[in-house]
Amino acid sequence: MTRKFIDCREFPSDMHCTVAISADNEDELLQAAVDHAVSVHRHRDSPELRQQLRQMFKDGMPPEQAPTGGQAGKAGTTSSALH
User: Fold this and answer.
1) Burial, 20: exposed, middle or buried (Cβ in 10 Å; 0-12, 13-18, 19+)?
2) Where are the domains of the chain?
3) Is 10 helix (H, G, I), strand (E, B) or coil?
4) Per-residue pLDDT tens for 33-71?
5) Are 9 and 16 a contacting pair, CB within 8 Å?
6) DSSP label at 67?
């Protein structure tokens, strides 16, 4: 199984969150991402939030340096899932 990650740095916000989360298991990654989105970014846990987060998962490990470009500035709801 390929390690997966989600990286808040791809979605700039007023919080300037720099958290990146990785796991070997998608379910484990999802739960950690939901916990982070709810406790830090004040989102409500919902099926829609979980779906948006799953769509942001990437294979591998998060880069050491903050990503440039990425999803920032793209229209749509996915960038709001964490911020």
Assistant:
1) middle
2) 4-62
3) helix
4) 999 999 999 999 999 999 999 999 999 999 998 877 555
5) no
6) P
